[in-house]
């Protein structure tokens, strides 16, 4: 069993209903230039939104939690939504080497994003 599958199993144990809120907070890219991080993180976000790719450690420091969440999202028929995608260069940090972050909400299929029935 892979680490992503183990993480998905833990998430399943925590899953009680469609009102369950699960937060997974992994980093995306690390120590890339601002422009390269934007490109890499955009590709990673696209993979997450499609729920059909495995994210690797070269594209996300937190690849295993992301992959575990994607497995659980597929099992529970959730739809991912991108809330925000930034890196440390978007704040007060320098842009030579940045760290990427993404915020996603996974909602029940056809559920409006504005309600509380989501896992993030």
Automatic annotation (TrEMBL):
It comes from the Bacteria. Gene3D superfamilies: LigB-like (3.40.830.10). Pfam families: Memo (PF01875). This is AmmeMemoRadiSam system protein B. The lineage of its organism: Bacteria, Pseudomonadati, Pseudomonadota, Betaproteobacteria, Nitrosomonadales.
